[in-house]
Amino acid sequence: MAAHYRRHNADGSVSGGPMFYLARGLAERGLPRLGRFMGGFYAVGIVIGCLGIGNISQSNQAFIQFVNVTDGTEASWFADKGWLFGLIMAALIGMVIIGGIKLIARVTEKVVPFMAILYCSMAMLIIAMNAEALPFAIKAILQGAFTPSAS
Fold it and tell me: What span, in angstroms and rounded, lies between the C-alpha atoms of 26 and 37?
């Protein structure tokens, strides 16, 4: 539905998502007011959700890890400067978002491959560090998958 009901803008960009397909799809079915309400409700809900549900936790965890990497909780110069870390992160992310979808795509195409390689490398390292537990883990997976309690 997102691809079918997306909007192609004059500048060549594309707008879409649930707020568009709810409004446009329900309008096609004779319910334009319900579609506008549901699309608007979804958009407002996402904005409210993004303000505190996931982003605060993620930025807080990033700050904690940054402090740990820079001499730990007490010794780090950054230990009491969470506001500075948050301000720097907000500025960097804001520059990318304000740059538009093309800048987001350019940044993403550079960051995502690095993240994938790092993630896979660290997963393999953790598996290698716990190689003695691997036979037990495989056995537990197979036993759990093929028993009545697996559902």
Answer: 10
